[in-house]
Inverse folding.
């Protein structure tokens, strides 16, 4: 795709990295993240995992660290409060505003309404959990809540992303790397169907407490709430039993009927993403280790800088791909929905 | 005091049925005891058994037969052509529209029409419902993963003029994807799917390697293999002042399901007994877990 605008007029592509704890946040900042996104230690965000996330004190430390180096911190409050838990979400918005975060990433109408009404100067981003796949939906959130950015679900092809961008009143953030949701985020109930807990209600998908591993004469088996997700032959690498990434039977075939255990990796699409004017690239993985955050941030910083310097000669370096491959699910990567044939 | 009497609704057909089958189905539905009929393609824009004109014509016929007709819109909108169809539907001034995406909510509220919030819109609280009611929502369909306890709390907060609808029977819509799983099953790219969904009038069953069926593939949509059946909960649904009960069309036996709900609503049949009869014919059993605040696939209430 040729450049649609001269390079000098293109805004720099912002690198948004995940952090599940303070060491991850610091390493992301140290290795070139422009922004870091975090969550509080409860079900107000979609990575509500044991031992993960920030309280008010660590969040304040993280903000101080990032701001001292001129970087930004976003906080994800991207689950859907039910009547019984509303106070937690309200408190989370209050806390985010008091902390002086650079943006709140939210999905639910009531959370957006509260944040926008109570803190008109608090920047809001529409979370991927908000399921906005088209510009009419983006306009809805912009008109009512003044969102300044939208994170697109991982379901659009590259031309579709471009079309949304050209008609969107706000900047577009896309996922560049990490765990791949194959379903439209915010509209997937598979996890609660099997385990009782879903991203929308509880901030978890295929929660660890529902997982059971078992060595059997038939092989190593992974189960989720008792349901067989996968079975591995001796020596076969085993992955986390995310519901949509198991091997199942459909008619007379046994295969990855929904999706292979694989990670999204769009390094090779960078010139196109840059040329179309994408505002930010998001790296998935708040649940991953500081080592993951370091590795992925380093590679993506180098790639974004190289692509900006010279998009026409840019090509992902083999060592970048190797490094990313090491931290990918099943050591495999895909272009996902950006590439039409994957669909 | 008369008992709170919910209306019966027939949800949109979620599968790809050939034109003749759809025509025949709605011919029969026009005389079935349902008050409300939701019409339209909500899953995949490549399914073209009817074009928009033909859906509208069918809507007229069902209206003439005494039904309240609502036009349902797509849950996953990606292409401009899909937005174009959405605009056509939202611009019609004859029928109420069910929004299944916030893009539809925007178009309908801008136009000033009252609309229905479908299962594709995430209303998890009375606060969210109040906001959307302010934009013109006159009815909402509860997200299927919510429990009766949560519904009770939302009902306590709901604005007076808003009706509550609950999906009470059928295979649950659980997820939407960019990928077509039916095409994938046949090793076909989505852009050349050869309309394989036509071969599966109620989806393709997905089982674990132990043969436990739990999902059904329906193109880009994933459904439950088990059939959600809240007929035994009729008293609770009434108690919670639910206004509309939605039955999701299946390829066989939809009339029987409607008849069972209708006779139970009239008090002529025991809901547990009627549910037992319906459940006996289900290939992968019934479930009610979501309603009971448990994993959706469970059947908690004993109807055997």
């Amino acid at each position: 795709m040729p450049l649609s605008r001269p390079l000098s007029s293109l805004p720099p592509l912002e690198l948004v990295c995940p952090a599940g704890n303070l060491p991850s946040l610091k390493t992301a900042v140290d290795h070139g993240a422009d922004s870091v996104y975090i969550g509080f230690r409860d079900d107000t965000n979609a990575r509500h995992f044991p031992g993960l996330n920030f309280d008010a004190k660590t969040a304040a430390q993280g903000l101080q660290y990032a701001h001292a180096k001129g970087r930004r911190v976003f906080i994800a409050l991207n689950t859907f409060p039910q009547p019984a838990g509303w106070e937690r979400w309200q408190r989370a918005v209050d806390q985010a505003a008091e902390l002086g975060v650079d943006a709140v990433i939210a999905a639910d109408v009531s959370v957006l309404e509260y944040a926008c009404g109570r803190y008109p100067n608090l920047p809001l981003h529409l979370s991927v959990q908000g399921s906005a796949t088209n510009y009419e939906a983006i306009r809805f959130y912009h008109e009512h809540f003044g969102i300044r950015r939208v994170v697109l679900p991982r379901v659009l092809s590259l031309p579709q992303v471009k079309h949304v961008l050209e008609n969107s009143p706000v900047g577009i953030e896309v996922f560049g790397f990490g765990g791949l949701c194959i379903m439209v985020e915010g509209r997937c109930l598979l996890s609660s169907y099997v385990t009782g807990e879903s991203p929308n209600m509880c901030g978890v998908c295929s929660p660890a407490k529902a997982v059971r591993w078992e060595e059997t004469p038939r092989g190593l088996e992974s189960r989720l709430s008792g349901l067989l997700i996968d079975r591995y032959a001796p020596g076969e690498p085993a992955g986390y039993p995310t519901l949509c990434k198991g091997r199942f039977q459909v008619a007379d075939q046994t295969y990855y009927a929904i999706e292979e255990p694989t990670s999204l990796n769009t390094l090779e699409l960078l010139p196109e993403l840059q040329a179309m004017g994408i505002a930010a690239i998001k790296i998935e993985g708040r649940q991953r280790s500081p080592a993951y955050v370091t590795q992925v941030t380093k590679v993506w910083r180098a790639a974004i800088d190289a692509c900006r310097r010279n998009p026409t000669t840019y090509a992902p370096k083999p060592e970048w791909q190797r490094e990313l491959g090491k931290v990918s699910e099943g050591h495999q990567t895909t272009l996902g929905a950006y590439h039409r044939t994957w669909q | 005091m008369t008992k709170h009497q919910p209306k019966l609704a027939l949800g949109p057909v979620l599968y790809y049925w050939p034109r003749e089958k759809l025509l025949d189905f709605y011919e029969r539905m026009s005389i079935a005891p349902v008050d409300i009929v939701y019409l339209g393609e909500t899953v995949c824009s490549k399914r073209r058994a009817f074009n928009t004109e033909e859906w509208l014509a069918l809507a007229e016929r069902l209206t003439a037969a005494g039904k309240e007709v609502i036009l349902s819109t797509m849950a996953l909108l990606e292409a401009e052509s899909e937005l174009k169809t959405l605009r056509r539907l939202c611009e019609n001034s004859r029928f109420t529209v069910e929004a299944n995406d916030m893009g539809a909510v925007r178009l309908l509220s801008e136009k000033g029409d009252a609309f229905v919030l479908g299962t594709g819109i995430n209303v998890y609280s009375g606060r969210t419902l109040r906001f959307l009611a302010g934009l013109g929502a006159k009815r909402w369909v509860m997200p299927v993963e919510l429990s009766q306890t949560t519904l009770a709390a939302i009902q306590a907060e709901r604005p007076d003029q808003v009706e509550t609808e609950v999906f009470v029977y059928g295979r649950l819509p659980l997820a939407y994807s960019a990928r077509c799983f039916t095409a994938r099953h046949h090793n076909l790219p989505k852009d050349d799917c050869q309309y394989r969904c036509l071969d599966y009038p109620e989806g393709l069953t997905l089982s674990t390697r132990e043969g436990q069926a739990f999902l059904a593939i329906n193109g880009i949509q994933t459904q439950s293999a088990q059939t959600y059946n809240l007929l035994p909960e009729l008293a609770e649904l009434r108690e919670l002042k639910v206004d509309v009960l939605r039955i999701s069309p299946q390829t066989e036996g939809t009339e029987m399901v409607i008849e069972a709900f209708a006779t139970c609503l009239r008090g002529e049949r025991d809901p547990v007994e009627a549910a037992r009869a319906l459940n006996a014919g289900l290939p992968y059993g019934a479930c009610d877990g979501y309603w009971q605040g448990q994993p959706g696939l469970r059947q908690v209430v004993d109807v055997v």
Observations:
- The domain at 7-172+227-287 of chain B is CATH 3.20.20.70 (TIM Barrel).
- The first helix of chain B runs from residue 19 to 29.
